[in-house]
Amino acid sequence: MSTHIIINDREITNPAIKFSVIVASTVCVGIITAALLFLVLPLVGISIAAAFSFALIVVACVAVAFVTIGLGSTLLSMLIGPFEFLVRKVKRH
Asked: Is the dihedral of CA 21, 23, 27, 29 positive or negative?
């Protein structure tokens, strides 16, 4: 093998040990990659989807609130009709 593996300033020369170190490191990299692909990325996706859904719900609720306030005030003004509030300062003797 042309691969040089050095641990604690000593090179490993035994081909079986070299093979096992290479296989173990490849398996570790595979496990880390699988964990990222199948655990972390779906969690990130779920949190992004939840944040988007929350924002969409907030926008929908605000839109419904504005429409309700607008229609409610229009309906109230039609039912009650025009009237005035008069506020003035009362002088006490």
From this structure: positive
